[in-house]
Amino acid sequence: MTSVRQVQVTFDCAEPERVARFWCEVLGYVVPPPPPGFATWADYDRSLPPERQGAGFVCQDPTGAGPRLYFQRVPEGKVVKNRVHLDVRVGTGLVGEERLAALEAECARLEVLGAKRLWLQEADEYNESCLTMQDVEGNEFCLD
């Protein structure tokens, strides 16, 4: 039996490069170098058939520790809540007001990038606070 060694998270979206660049800023990810023989990703994109141009874009953790993110263009728009979402772990180990301050600071940074704040889930007897947001195309994610 083969064991899984890497995971890629794939997002359906309308504008793959725009969404990928947003997530690069959120996570500190980078766009990998273009394929051999191409100076830029734009050069590579222009080499594709017209129907494939702009159809996908990638970003990855520069350390190689986190999953690769792939963004693929789809014709339909988002209509319901995601069944899977990313938790951006900005408050790990923090509790109470200190955690809330970290969540709020990151929320403010991401709103400047085009994210939208949805709601704050305040701590209860079982869970710490987290903040639900949407990326630039409305995909939900949490600041945790």
What shape does the CA trace take?
elongated
Q: How far is the N terminus from the C terminus?
A: 35 Å
Number-wise, the strands total 7
- By DSSP (H or I, 4+ residues per run), the number of helices equals 3
Count of all domains: 2
Low-confidence stretches: none
Give the mean pLDDT.
Answer: 93
In terms of quaternary structure, what is this? single chain
Q: In order across it, which strands form the biggest sheet?
A: 4-7-6-5
Helix-strand pattern: EHHEEEHEEE
Biggest sheet: strands, sense, closure? 4 strands, mixed
Secondary structure category: alpha/beta
Question: Over all CA atoms, what is the radius of gyration?
Answer: 17 Å
- Percent helix range: 10-25%
* Strand fraction: 15-25%
Textual characterization of the structure:
- The chain is α/β, with parallel strands linked by helices and 144 residues long.
- It folds into 2 domains: 8-73, no CATH class; 86-143, no CATH class.
- It is built from 3 helices and 7 strands; from the N terminus they run E-H-H-E-E-E-H-E-E-E.
- A hairpin with a 5-residue loop joins strand 6 and strand 7 (140-143).
- The chain is elongated, with a radius of gyration of 17 Å.
- The model has no long low-confidence stretch (mean pLDDT 93).
